[in-house]
Amino acid sequence: MDSPHSPLVKINCDAAFKDSTAAMAIVGRDSSGSVLHVYGTPCHAFSPLHAEIFAIHSACHLASCRGWYHAIVESDSQVAISLSSTDIVPPWSIDALVADIRLWSKNMNLTFSWTSRDNNKVAHYAARFASSSIFSFSWDVSFPVELTSLARNDVYCS
């Protein structure tokens, strides 16, 4: 993971999809790699790609709401990143989400980057956590010990 340079924010996102049940999570970090915000929620999705695009869409929305106008959005879904960052025509079922993502990208300074699952462990953990919950969560200050440990190891391995 390349460490973002200030005032750049890096937003990792991931989705969990199993047996027609989905959840997604977003992890925002500052230029030093410190976790700024974690959001996760169970969600409705009809495919793994739909869940991944929904996670990227939610990451863009969070960036807009938080004023993170210079951000890198990372996902371990190559197809979702490709659809978000190119002019490839998306499947009709996710076209509206992709159109929103591209509009946010154009209006803000958002870039999209694929990362391996090994570099997306914190978002993956949060998505799994969200998949076992019936409620959304939003953490700004206090994070679960497991998540904090993963985030710390992620920074050290960078």
TrEMBL record:
It comes from the Eukaryota. Residues 12-130 form the RNase H type-1 domain. Keywords: Nucleotidyltransferase, RNA-directed DNA polymerase, Transferase. GO terms for molecular function: RNA-directed DNA polymerase activity. Pfam families: RVT_3. The lineage of its organism: Eukaryota, Viridiplantae, Streptophyta, Embryophyta, Tracheophyta. It comes from Tanacetum coccineum. InterPro entries: RNase_H-like_dom_plant, RNase_H-like_EbsB-rel, RNaseH-like_sf, RNaseH_domain, RNaseH_sf. This is Reverse transcriptase. Transmembrane segments: none annotated.
